[in-house]
Specification:
two-stranded antiparallel sheet; Arc Repressor Mutant, subunit A; globular; mainly alpha
């Protein structure tokens, strides 16, 4: 959910995220679950944590174009290409097969997650660009 809030500009570059307790209450999950989610967002490069200050949406800009030299962005695009090919192959098969439908749902979810991460990084980049007057 925070990934989408970053992608949609609801959480802006440099903005502090809600506390672990606030997020746990908001999503009705255990604090440990929130910590795991924040760790994933940190590993994806969407947020940074500062000792005794909190967690913030990153402010430095990452090139999210297909030509990017950022290793994580390159990996996202490569994985998205693989997942798109898997979707084509899965859709070409028997969609009445429950196992195929489950696999189709998983691949679609994985593709959406990679896409959301890149959208969030693109939103950070847009927010960090100077405004012409």
């Amino acid at each position: 959910m925070l990934r989408l809030e970053i992608a949609h500009g609801e959480l802006k570059a440099g903005e502090r995220t809600p506390s672990i307790r606030q997020l746990a209450d908001r999503f009705e999950v255990a604090p440990g679950t929130v910590q795991s989610a924040l760790r994933e967002l940190r590993n994806e490069g969407l947020i940074v944590s500062q000792q005794a200050r909190g967690t913030f949406v990153r402010t430095d800009v990452v090139d999210v174009s297909p030509e990017s030299q950022d290793p994580q962005v390159k990996a996202d695009f490569a994985r998205m290409d693989e997942l798109a090919q898997q979707l084509v192959e899965l859709r070409a098969g028997d969609l009445r097969n429950p196992a195929r439908l489950l696999q189709l749902a998983k691949v679609s979810g994985d593709l959406a997650a990679h896409s959301a991460r890149l959208a969030a990084l693109a939103a950070i980049a847009r927010q960090s660009q100077p405004v012409d007057k």
